[in-house]
């Protein structure tokens, strides 16, 4: 019975899952930002190249 109580009170797995969710949210935000800025920077380089 003590093993069952110890298993139910163990929060190590839930903490790891929380950290994984936070890391995945941050990575999604980074990918979205880089994608948006990458296309804008590419357009800026095209404008600069057209000047010369």
Characteristic key phrases:
single chain, 52 residues, mainly alpha, 2 helices, 92% helix
Task: Please summarize what this structure is.
This protein has helices at 2-9, 12-51. By secondary structure, it is an all-alpha fold.
Explain this structure to me?
This is Flp family type IVb pilin. Keywords: Membrane, Transmembrane, Transmembrane helix. It comes from Pseudolabrys taiwanensis. The chain crosses the membrane at residues 20-45. The protein is mainly alpha-helical and 52 residues long. It has one domain (2-50). It has helices spanning 2-9, 12-51. The longest helix is centred in the middle third of the chain and has 40 residues, at 12-51. The radius of gyration is 23 Å and the shape is rod-shaped.
Average pLDDT works out at 87
Counting helices, strands and paired strands, the structural category is mainly alpha
Helical content stands at over 70%
**From N to C, what is the helix and strand string?**
HH
Distance between the termini: 79 Å
Q: Kindly provide the radius of gyration, computed on alpha-carbon positions and rounded to a whole number of angstroms.
A: 23 Å
How many domains would you count in the coordinates? Answer: 1
Biggest sheet, open or closed, and with what strands and sense?
none
Strand tally: 0
> How would the global form be characterised?
rod-shaped
Number of helices: 2
Ranges where pLDDT stays below 50 over 5 or more residues in a row are: none
Q: What percentage of amino acids are in beta strands?
A: under 5%
Which helices and strands, and how do they pair?
Blueprint lengths: L1 H8 L2 H40 L1
């Amino acid at each position: 019975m003590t093993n069952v109580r110890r298993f139910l009170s163990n929060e190590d797995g839930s903490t790891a899952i929380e950290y994984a969710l936070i890391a995945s949210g941050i990575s999604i935000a980074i990918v979205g930002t880089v994608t948006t800025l990458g296309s804008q920077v590419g357009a800026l380089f095209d404008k600069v190249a057209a000047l010369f």
